[in-house]
Fold each of these.
Amino acid sequence: MMTENLYESYKLLFNKEADPFYAFAPGRMNIIGEHTDYNGGNVLPAAISFGTYALGSKREDGVIRVHSLNFPEDGVITFHMDVLDYKQEDGWANYPKGMFRYLHEAGHFLHGGADILFYGDIPNGAGLSSSASIELATGVLLTSLFHLDLERQDLVLIGQRVENEFLGISSGIMDQFAVGMGKANHAIHLNCDSLEFEYAPLMLDGYSFIIMNTNKRRTLVSSSYNERRQQCEAALKQLNKESNLSYLCELTPGQFEKRKHLIVDPILRKRAKHVIYEHGRTAEAVKKLANGDLSGFGQLINESHESLKYEYEVTGEELDTIVHTAWKQEGVLGARMTGAGFGGCAIAIVKNEHIFAFIENTKKVYKEVIGYDASFYQVTIGDGAYVCNKKPMIQK
Ligand code: GLA
């Protein structure tokens, strides 16, 4: 293992010193409330200790140069403030580029350009919002470098715009919100319609969150994701034969049961059912957490997974194997897939003294059934994106 000083790398790469502060933006896990954000529902995500670091310095000629220590083979990617268009060959650099573009369009003065170095320790492509993390790391770094007058929620919305308009993924607001607004030892109970939120203390004494990465490549995620979103819109349209709802989550489960006959297609009915029940489950889970009913909380987490498996159909063999195996282990409060699904990660809440055996056993069964290894990470819940003045020492 090599310890690398990002400031040294910066100097070697760009032949000048970075400004003496760095930005950090975490990844996120979602505890419950899946595929509800784009349906005006509740979510309960939290920022995790993994994230993206960014350091930089301003330029004066309008050029932007970016490099990521995670993609050294891509070299230094260069573009200009005058041409901030999406380019497939720019790969990961489209995330910072999109941030430059929409900050610029919102009237923020970034004209001189900048040289930025990124390094992230979020497992890549695992559904832990590494993209939102790069967006927000860029956003908070530029806010400091250029002294921009921006509320944090503005940055969050600009990050979502990069995803939706620059990258063409119709994702909701959850990821950028969690990455931008997270708070240590708390989850964010967010209503994605009004953007009203409260911090829910994660009072899980004696338990830890374990992220279980199926290591399944998330192929076709964006097309399947966009398809689910369209199905929700189609279900809403059918329900609206007799109402005027803006979002599926305006209905309670009881109201849905009375009106579900309006949705003719059984697949669309299943999609709507998941969304509406999941919205209710999320508020319920927050109450159970506040009342210290940990087993009730865990039960709702398990129910969420089953609904994502049977009604929303976004789990797949790998996620189901890892979650169902996790449920059978001693000391497990609950487990479910997290994020968009179709591979990627699941989470489990595990009693501390059982973590070692939990990982050993779950790993073994997963390999036997799926044929390759899963990875496990014990995470702590950290703060949302911030700028810091000390130089980080990164373990690589
Ligand atoms: C992805 C999207 C989020 C959300 C989740 C599913 O992570 O980026 O907006 O829709 O999937 O809950």
Note: Residues 266-290 form the longest helix (25 residues).
Amino acid sequence: MTHPATIATTTDRAATYEAVLARIDALLDGETDWIAAMATVACELHHAFPYYHWTGFYRAVSDDLLVIGPYQGGHGCLRIPFSKGVCGAAARERRTQLVPDVDAFPGHIACSSTTRSEIVVPVLTPAGDLLAVLDVDSDDPAAFDATDQQYLERLCARLGRRFAGTPVR
Ligand code: SME
């Protein structure tokens, strides 16, 4: 896959993710507050990659509704039902949505008209409960690839294990 010159190569990405995930682990050491964790993760990820233009969490507050959590970037939609958009699809299907072209995704919610591509990863506990989804939007087309998916899924799995049982509703 080719990317615009502004986007890091796969090797750079992997190295950057390794460093960011290690930093997040260190920052969250001993932290038990889920909101503090989400805020820290959003901040660290957002500032590590030039193609991250909106980075944040939507919390699963019921079996069919996501509500905005900590994020970086312009304001996001406040509430997203599971039936709507890329975030809703990730929550409903409980699997990552990698969307190279948001215009080609039926029902995509255009919170920002500049968004061209995105990735949304569910945060699931080992018991399979959905805590939240991690949503990253880019103004670059096809900004995210399998490397992003692999590392973000690793991160979200860690968060799901770590914050299982946390009161989120
Ligand atoms: N792009 C998302 C909506 C969330 S905001 O853009 C921050 C979606 O379609 O689910």
Note: Residues 10-27 form the longest helix (18 residues).
Amino acid sequence: MEKFYVTTPIYYVTAKPHLGHAFATIVADILARWNRILGKEVFFLTGTDEHGTKIEKAAREAGKTPKEFVDEVANMYMGAWKALDISYDKFIRTTDEEHEKAVSEFVRLVWDNKDIYKGVYEGWYCVPDETFIADFEVKDGKCPECGRDVQRVKEDAYFFALSSYKEDLLRIFEENPDFVKPNSRLNEIVKILKGTLRDLDITRKSVTWGIPFEPDKEQTVYVWFDALINYISALGWPNGSKFTEFWPADVHIVGKEISRFHAVIWPAMLLSAGIDLPKTILVHGWWTVEGKKMGKSLGNAVNPIDLSKKYSVDALRYFLVKEKSIWEDGDFSESGLVSRINGELLADLGNLVARVLTLAEKFKGKIDGKAEIADNLNMSRIMELFDGYDINGALNEIWAFVRSINKYINDTEPWKLDGPRLGTVLNNSLEALRIISILLYPFMPSTSESMQAQLGIKLGTINDCKFGTFNGKVKRGKNLFDKIVTA
Ligand code: ME8
């Protein structure tokens, strides 16, 4: 069976899950579910990043031990993903024993390959981003990435010979133009690579909340070096059978602020350890609020669970993918969400299902007849968009099909028909709804399920997305969506 391995970033436990985290995780869930209905065996990984300075500091501020603190927040993430219908196969935590062992083994391989040397790190460190920053990048004592204060650090440290992988990485990017998506992000990475690529400090002497660095126990492993290894430790690397089955990953989903870690540092680490590289790093854009990146630091984080309770999980999932291209930034507003519910989910889909099922339930004749609207569905385009991970494009294409069925109903006016002609129009409409219920499954799993319950059918696979003779047993249920009335 063909395999598909998809991952999200593992989230820092310093922040509670917000809409940005939910977005990245929903994107991964959509790809996982899509590949399941393609008939592949899927492994979908998410989890939490639990070591490092900022977590140590956050625990102290909360009056807890780091362990108590990380357990609490990791549980919060698991709860959030359950609430949002995230179908992950494994939730990894970097404090898992299996992960810690894998990190030590990884360090050993890189060490044996003579890619680690001792030196002194003197420079700046951004605690919220857990990033080392060169002198020339710091402006007025602030981090160039997030704008927060940086700390001066001077300590003995071990370095990874990142710079020696520069040419290899450039060649890999040249040979695999899909290694980073979208292309504009690949170009940015190539530009970074062609500039000065410094070796990376991979240990911290002053940080105790971390994985011991085996060659020198006075040091702990730098949190990013530790965190990236989650993508293989979760599969039981070095010995696990899942590693043999699922590695290399098909796609690592990451936000644009961490593309450099995934497209430069991670592949160099893997090259040094002699492990295959992942196939694609998918770099998505941000959700902003009034133009500013949503996040804890700005205090503008939107709670996805509150929204899902207020409007439904599926409405939120739909909105996050439909509202903006996956590659670009998009500004969040609750009014935008409401207008997608009323104007699309209810007006295009909910009403269509109600209209067709009401007519079908009343009809006593035979539902069959030739396909009249098969050409409205561009399956090869949908497949192609999914192949390129453009899930916003795919959803737009699916929605064009939904709208075309509304037009078909308006044009054929089935409420004025009867006999075999009505049987044919109903057959086309019901078959269209059956196909829509499959295509929407990755995006809105419970809406898809509710459509199937009302159509009296089972989910099926992508191979079932073609017109035939409808053979479900129709039973109208409750409306898929209700109108949201705002004051
Ligand atoms: O960076 N819009 O964790 P993190 C869209 N632990 N997506 C957003 C977002 C926003 N406003 N804010 C966050 C870390 N995200 C590291 C990762 S991986 C080995 C280690 C999403 O908790 C986006 O995917 O800061 C981003 O890359 C990720 O959350 C960062 O989560």
Note: Residues 9-12, 15, 20-21, 23-24, 49, 227-228, 230, 254-255, 257-258, 286-287, 293-295 surround ME8 (CB under 6 Å).
Amino acid sequence: MMELKSGQKDLTKTSPIEIKNLSVTYRTEPALWNIDLNFPEGKMIAIVGPNGAGKSTLIKAIMGLVPITAGKVSVYGKPYSSQRRKVAYVPQRGSVDWDFPTDALDVVEMGLYGRLGWLRRPNSQTRDKARECLAKVGLEEYTDRQIGQLSGGQQQRVFVARALAQDPQIYLMDEPLNGVDAITEETILSILEDLRKEGNTIVMVHHDLQTVDKYFDWVVMLNRNLVGSGPIKEVFTKDNLDKTYREKQRVSLG
Ligand code: ADP
Ligand code: MG
């Protein structure tokens, strides 16, 4: 493949995330069944579906955090393992141990360790970067605060700052707006809007169906099976909502 000159756009347009025939089974029942997806670049993408639909599992499967039973995931045409630096993950808030004795600045800085190459120790450069990203999410006054003492919204913003510091092209976020205050929601959305304008791809598990058409370009509707994926206007339909939320989805084993 030809090297791209800096500033030159990649015209081959590989999908940021391509998922083929993906199934994930934790015990006996599949959590995801035969999912085919192509995420478009530079869009705000919502993943919606009821509790237990496999939304978090899908995000984790992209990063190899859960064992894949069948299928394949590619990030810009390659396995995730060789593309880690292009992807940042904001986990669901409930899955994080907030009693862990560490302050906001450390949480952001720790997100950079894997990316430092031979110089694995934090240094003044990573510290500055972490401070700058905390300022972007409005937490410049809270750098030394223990994470357990921050409000839910502030904790969420710390994790957004951590993702920003990693300077990825793809943001995978698991319900970052769930249960946060209005300031946090506005701050996160305005940051994401800027990132999208710069061509980044944002994939977000989203619980609030009322705001899907307002915030997102694209929707993935999931209930173990894929119900639909595409532009909001085409896919976020009453029919698909019924299929996603009301009808009990049967996993076809045929
Ligand atoms: P969602 O995020 O849409 O609520 P999840 O992806 O968390 O759904 O879970 C999908 C299904 O997989 C659920 O039935 C859940 O109980 C099950 N599940 C999720 N994680 C695990 C796990 N680590 N071990 C066993 N079952 C799991
Ligand atoms: Mg979930």
Note: The mean pLDDT is 90.
